[in-house]
Write a structure and sequence with these properties.
The structure holds 2 protein chains of 2 kinds. Chain A is mainly β. Chain A has helices spanning 24-30, 66-70, and strands at 13-20, 40-48, 52-60, 80-85, 88-93, 100-102, 105-106, 122-128, 131-136, 142-144, 149-150. Chain B folds into 2 domains: 32-128, 3-Layer(aba) Sandwich (Rossmann fold); 131-284, Rossmann fold (3-Layer(aba) Sandwich), CATH 3.40.50. Classes of the chains: A mainly beta, B alpha/beta.
């Protein structure tokens, strides 16, 4: 079958591919793409041999920082980050879960100070025998990676 | 942020824990040393806790310090909508240290981050209450002569009980063996069992009190609260099964001591009080010396 490019190629910028379809708009929110003035292409529910249905984000003329892309490791650990210059992929960037996650996650504990006062959230990323857990810096409650609430 | 704050028992190393306990023993021998002469300590109780507040305030007064503060959020500016950040900054203009009780978990850690003066956490929701843990350790040390190699039975509400969780963390320095005795509804959460396994701390779990503590050095009782149960008939059953009676102590070790963070309700029958193994009222008194040690360390460094 002939493979057709459904989305126009990017000259310079960042492509985030293989985003699970139900996570696309979380990615948009985490990266604050909704307020970006750059040209943005969003696509969703594209066919994917690997994950069935995927989303895609293309940001023109902006190279995302490593700190920014690593935020995605929490919700879309298998997304692919490609940095493009002159239509060529100059960097395939792996996603690495940071040791500490600030602001993007909301504490699941309704009695946590961060849900009642203007306090920026902080979570420590723990590895409990292969289970990735997030521990709130303030209330010390742990939550599994899949059960994390993104703000 | 002031590095001298005490928010969680995990903030203290083994050496710092032992130093506090030694200092507490000095204060027990001589409770009226004026180490805080001329100092002002604020006690900010955003929720009432008379027992804890009186203990801290007595400690400060015996050390020669003065107290400012409030005992109920209804009488403080937080009822007008002031943020915790602002309250802490305002109070730190007047006080050399702040003892804080707050109904929200994480409030103490946050306060310690924004405060120019040290914060002592006197309980943040169901999270941490480190002075309670230190007085528990002091009581174990005093009654057993050592903290090493103790067999400790934790009984009652092991799911929500912050005192037992903190005790596990603190005792992890001293090679304990634990037995967790709780009804299924109130079992020890997995994260603490994971912690024990990671630290090579042996533990067993049973769900009946009976005579499961005959090999124990410390029997640490906690209150089983009615509001934790979905099924009130189950609560009635558990309440009766989890009552310690004097007759159940016949075959226990001579050095066994019974601890309880208080207040107790039905979990220890009053007929236990006269048994020499009952230690819970002395334990509360130990809290005074431990809090004298904590306040001296926090203010003086």
């Amino acid at each position: 079958m002939e493979k057709k490019l459904k989305v126009a190629a990017l000259c310079n910028g960042t492509v985030i591919d293989h985003i699970p379809s139900d996570k696309l708009f979380k990615v948009v929110s985490i990266l604050h793409i909704e307020t970006s003035l750059n040209q943005i292409t969003l696509a969703n529910n594209l066919e994917s041999a690997k994950i069935g249905s995927k989303g895609l984000v293309k940001i023109s003329d902006r190279i995302l920082e490593v700190d920014e892309t690593n935020k995605l490791a929490l919700i879309a650990p298998n997304a692919k980050i490609n940095i493009i210059r002159d239509y060529l992929v100059v960097e395939k960037r792996p996603l690495i879960l940071p040791e500490e996650i600030r602001e993007i996650v909301q504490c699941a504990n309704p009695n946590c100070i961060t849900n009642h006062q203007p306090v920026n959230t902080r979570f420590h990323v723990l590895n409990n025998d292969g289970d990735i857990m997030l521990k709130c810096h303030y209330c010390e409650r742990e939550v599994k990676r899949d059960e994390v609430k993104i703000k | 942020m002031s590095n001298n704050s005490l928010v969680s028992i995990a903030d203290y190393s083994k050496e710092e824990i032992l130093a506090i306990l030694h200092s507490a023993a000095d204060f027990e021998a001589n409770p009226n040393r004026k180490t805080l002469d001329g100092r002002v300590i604020a006690t900010l109780f955003f929720e009432p806790s008379t027992r804890t507040r009186l203990s801290f305030e007595t400690a400060v007064i015996r050390l020669g310090g003065s107290i400012i503060g409030f005992s109920d959020a209804a009488t403080s500016s937080s009822s007008k909508g002031e943020t915790l950040n602002d309250t802490i900054h305002m109070v730190s203009c007047y006080a050399d240290a702040i003892v804080m009780r707050h109904p929200l978990e994480g409030a103490a850690r946050y306060a310690a981050e924004v405060s120019p003066v040290p914060i002592v956490n006197a309980g943040d929701g169901s999270n941490q209450h480190p002075s309670q843990t230190l007085l528990d350790l002091y009581s174990i040390l005093k009654t057993q002569g050592t903290l090493e190699n103790q067999t400790i039975c934790l009984v009652g509400d092991l799911k929500y009980g912050r005192t037992v969780h903190s005790l596990i963390m603190a005792m992890s320095h001293f090679h304990p063996t634990f037995k967790f005795i709780a009804p299924d509804e109130l079992k020890m959460p997995d994260e603490y069992k994971v912690f024990c396994r990671k630290n090579n701390i042996p533990f067993t779990e049973v769900n009946e009190l009976n005579d499961n503590f005959n090999d124990a050095d410390i029997l640490y009782m906690t209150r089983v609260q009615k509001e934790r149960f979905q099924d009130l008939m189950e609560y009635e059953r558990v309440k009766n099964v989890y009552t310690l009676k004097n007759s159940m102590l016949d075959n226990t070790k001579a050095n066994l001591r019974i601890l309880h963070p208080l207040p107790r309700v039905t979990e220890i029958d009053p007929d236990v009080d006269s048994n020499e193994k009952a230690y819970y009222f002395r334990q509360a008194q130990n809290g005074l010396y431990v809090r004298q040690a904590i306040m001296s360390k926090v203010v003086l460094g």
